Amino acid sequence: MKNTQSMVDDFMETCDELIDNITGDILDLEEHHDTEIISRIFRAFYCIKGDARVLGLGPLADLAHKGEDLLSLLKNLEAEVNQTTVDSLLQNLDGIKLALEDHRFDRPSESGPYKAEGLKDPPSLQSPLKILIVEDDFTCRTILTEFLSKFGECHVAKDGLEAIWAFTLSYAEKPANPYHLICMDIIMPRMDGSQACKTIREIERGKGIEGTEDETTIIMITGLSDPRNYVKACYESGADSYMVKPVDLFQLKKQMQSMNLID
Asked: Same structural domain for residues 72 and 11?
């Protein structure tokens, strides 16, 4: 009988194969609502969820379950295939891949304790970051939180008003403890990301830190389809950069490095 670690290894290898197979299927959904493709993707998420639960990999099972729920809606024609649903499935798949890489990193390897493929890095000598994630979509918020939490302390807000409140409170602490990085969606209820970003820059201007090294780095995240619109919204609001959904976590890491937030 195989031991538990051998079973986990087999499971992760199977996950890699399933992910490779269904990534193209998910992209194909952008072209048309194909019930056979949807069923094939559903079975992959179902298998990942079930095996992960048996092996005690709860967070991975939860992510797969979220994708399974969305695919159930598509199968039953309770939701339509569009750019938003395709992006949600791709983001969910990114979260599963990230969870797999995190598990690989947690295991010791023959080449050294920090040798692993994927997103994990050796511990940095830099101080941990304080990060605010502003996103109304649960899946995207979960993926960003799981990825960014290894660089520091992550807080979350679900709309622009909550973001402004969290930012204001960070300066009310004694001493002030502002955010190093804010990742903020543009389209959100109550107050959108562009307006929240403008307000945050106004608060910094009032404190005399606008344009200084103490200014918070803001990366806008958008699902808008017209490049001219989201680039204009990004820079007019005072953001430092932008990314398009589904967020490429490797590119996000590169942006953070280019902004000297991480090594």
From this structure: yes
Give start and end residues of each alpha helix (H) in 76-207. 83-106, 138-148, 160-172, 193-206
Q: Percentage of the chain with pLDDT > 90?
A: 22
Coil, strand, or helix at residue 129?
strand
Check: pTM over 0.90? Answer yes or no.
Answer: no
Residue 35, domain CATH? 1.20.120.160
Is the pLDDT assigned to residue 117 strictly greater than 50? no
- ∠ CA 179-180-183, nearest 5°, is 85
Say what the pLDDT of residue 104 is: 65
Q: Are 8 and 55 in contact (CB under 8 A)?
A: yes
Would you say residue 41 lies in a domain? yes
Q: Which domain holds residue 151?
A: 129-258
Helix H or strand E encompassing 12: helix 4-28
At residue 133, does pLDDT exceed 90?
yes
**Contact partners, residue 144, CB within 8 Å, separation at least 6:** 133, 135, 183, 247
Q: How far is CA 22 from CA 17, 53, 142, in A?
A: 9, 21, 21
Question: Which residues face 170 on adjacent strands?
Answer: none
For residues 79 and 150, membership in a common domain is answered with no
